[in-house]
Sequence to fold (165 residues):
Amino acid sequence: MPYGQLPVLEVDGKQLAQSKAICRYLAKELKLMGSNPWEEAKGDMIVDYVEDMRSPIIRIFHEKDEERRKLQTQLFKEQQLPTFLKNLERDLTDNKDGEGYFIGDKMTWTDILFVTTISVIKLFAEKYNMEFSLEKFPKLSALVERVESSEAIAAWIAKRPETAM
Ligand SMILES: N[C@@H](CCC(=O)N[C@@H](CS)C(=O)NCC(=O)O)C(=O)O
Fold:
């Protein structure tokens, strides 16, 4: 393992670490990048923002003090998460009125990373009894459906192993 950490992708006996480097490599191979440098930069901007949305989860998960964990979970649920989702709903709406994807006119790895992060938030919500729904964010909710029902992704979801947090 290059840095002693996961994830690691192995291709033809070579190893690649760092999740976003792996995502970008796979996106280029699978034609899931934006169509021009501006679209790719916007896609990267949204990816970094989605990563920021996910970061409190990691901190809370590693918090040993139960009282502090409860407070941080409440802050995440009531303030941080709604702000992130509101901004992401606006970003999505800015492109084709939110009827398609975050950038351009086809699905990119930015959409997939967002949908994957939502599934991590759902697992987190189950573990810590936190109410979570995308009800107030209809465009994001429809994006999750759109991505999860695309043929190859739906086939993977149907056969992937159960994941616990
Ligand atoms: N920036 C890295 C972070 C990788 C990372 O923190 N991996 C964790 C698992 S999700 C790990 O392997 N931790 C064990 C360790 O660091 O010893 C990435 O995005 O891939």
The longest strand covers residues 8-11. The pocket of glutathione is lined by residues 4-7, 18-19 (CB under 6 Å). The mean pLDDT is 97. The longest helix spans residues 66-94.
